[in-house]
Amino acid sequence: MPKRNKSVSVLRKKKYKGVSTNKKLRLAVESLLRINHPIDKSTQLEVQREIDFELIKRNIEEHKWNFDPHPSLSIQEKEEFVEVSDLPGEDVQRDLKKLIDDTAQSWNEKEDFGFTVPSRDSSYTLYVHHLLRRVLTKHDKRRPFSGRSPELSMSTLYVLLRIYDQCFSNKAKYVKKRWIYYSDTVRFNCDPDVAYGIIDDICCMLRCTSLSLRVISDTTGTVIGPFTFVCGDTPHECSSSAEKIPSCELIADTRFNNCKASFILLVEKNTVFHDLAQENFHENAKWIMVSGQGYGDRSTKVFLKKLHRELRIPVLAIVDCNPYGLQILFDYKYGSAKSAFDSVNLAVRDIKWLGVRPSDLEKYKIDVGGKEFKDHAVTMAKNLLEQDFVKMDDNWVSEIEKMLEIVKGIDIEGLHTKGSQYLSMKFLAEKLESKDWI
């Protein structure tokens, strides 16, 4: 039996450190597909070039970045919009108890009782220019216990009681969202989104973050770069391998040390993140890379915002050249429609779009193949054109119109057909050297 190549084994462990188990097989398969994909050899010589890292650093430093916090709601706007904030535990405990007691009293008096819940429907989200983010406008709806479908109201009361009992009576520090779901999956019709939606409803009712409610979720984000972050007394050295982003309850007390990075690169795809990390390009370029594996969980967004604000370094993003990648970018930049009530805590308004943009396809002679957007993607792109935050910038409008003109796009991984290091040594390097971001 042949001896196992230990150096390859160590390399793989290092590459996939911080990657969840259920992602590893997909990562391996995608890597094999890239290895066996026909490569455009005409571009190989272009990659062999000297990268001007000092120029990149000067470009970043000379650009005018905005690190100011989002403007606060006015007194009038607090009545018009639903916004959550981090509240003291005693305030949340008091409001939770009052909500439960009022419900119990109405029940005992046999009144037509129920909950008044702010609607989180995406049609009620609005981009407010002077706030520079999406917000949730206030449209309350009644959730009664009587009527044809009392199940949602009963489930809301169940979640309220579980949270109060576990976190405020038994003094547990936090509970996981999935713990609430698995405590009675049948109640939630075996759909975790029902349980998670009720938790968001409670946050909106109490105007507190899920962290203040002491309900947290698992984090899927990863980070790598020339810096160290410290959670409690545990240092996490990020310069040599990817580290898992800490969960929300730890981020507030997280400290950053020894940062030598000049900017943050937000990478949509975890596969691309690990490919770039494997090349160690981030070390020479002195950047921090963050990936939320798509839309990103709350912990990843809070961590990214903290990095941006406390280290005062800008954020550039690379996403797929299609409406879905662009929507992910907008969710990080302006807050998502689904979590508009939490946008003040999550949005990083000064993220710049580095690529892959529709204008890049012609500039870098990238072959998009013959696969056109499906109807849903076309509709999504047209809807993005109607967003106020797109209309206010001609560059955004031009790129989306070009996307609709060619009705095709490309995943970031598609650049690997032009060479294994084309993405870093050619595409990203040239863009950073020429300040090619919007």
Fraction of helical residues: 40-55%
Residue stretches low in confidence (pLDDT < 50, at least 5 long) are: 1-16, 29-45
Mean pLDDT: 86
State the shape: globular
Shape-level CATH architecture of the largest domain: 3-Layer(aba) Sandwich
Give the strand content.
Answer: 5-15%
CATH class of the largest domain: Alpha Beta
Determine the number of helices (DSSP H or I, runs of at least 4 residues).
20
Topology (SSEs and partners):
Layout: H1 6-15, H2 21-35, H3 44-47, H4 53-62, H5 75-80, E1 81-82, H6 89-108, E2 114-118, E3 125-128, E4 133-137, E5 140-144, H7 151-169, E6 175-176, H8 177-182, H9 192-206, E7 215-216, E8 222-224, E9 228-231, E10 234-237, E11 243-244, H10 248-251, E12 255-257, E13 263-267, H11 270-279, H12 281-285, E14 287-291, H13 298-311, E15 315-318, H14 323-334, H15 343-346, E16 352-355, H16 358-363, H17 375-385, H18 388-391, H19 394-406, H20 422-433
Helix pairs in contact: 6-7, 7-9, 17-19
